[in-house]
Amino acid sequence: MIPKVIAISNQKGGVGKTTTSVNLAVGLAMRGYKVLLIDTDYQASCTVALGINMEYDNKSIYAALVDLAPIQDCIIPSGRKNLDIIPSTQHLVGAEIELVTVTNREFILTDKLEVIKPLYDFIFIDCPPSLGIVPVNSLVASDSVLIPLQCEYFGLEGLEMLLDTIKIIQKRLKPELYVEGILMTMYDNDSDLSKKMVALMRENFGDDVFDTYINRDINFIDSTASQIPVIASRKSESEGLQAYQRLILEFLEKYNLKKRKV
Q1: What is the pTM of this model?
Q2: Contact by Cβ (8 Å): 162, 134
């Protein structure tokens, strides 16, 4: 299959972006696909969630972007079969300054990914909830954007900002970039607001909204502490685990893909 690069982004924080990045990456790896997760969030949330202890900047997305190391040397095994990660560190924020004067700086990550794309089926880029050189690089380097959106009205502002950003990138930098889908998160079964938000989004965005929505689940908090993603846990009763399993099946069905032999 042709490698797919998917940015997971929302310009608002706290929408389940990192949770989605980690569980999608781990879930697809568990199904036999070769997956790379790139953490471009300055808070390094994906890196922490997978239990990667980053003490050195010479093996990170920061090192790759500012040419401290070739990107292939920044790939670290996650400890899970079929899943690698390029971690982030707190110094990534410095790249925003260091890359300001670089020619064609919006395409740095695009060029670097060409070397490693053939190694993977899927590359997920966890983006920070902000707009700068690094997030723009992540979007330009991607084929599509998956947008997590919590089931609350004030989340629409972040969606509007991101869609405007995508339109600008399509117009000026990458016309073929498209929206992979809008994923409704933090769904509360007992909340009328959650139901109204899902209905509103489907009315306005149609098939761009995933059929699957992600329930609120205390297990997400537990998984952060234990550094075991919900989808890899043994808590089969977890609504979050079941939701991400459904999302992966929906995701694979979209591309007519099936489970591979592990």
Answers
A1: 0.93
A2: no
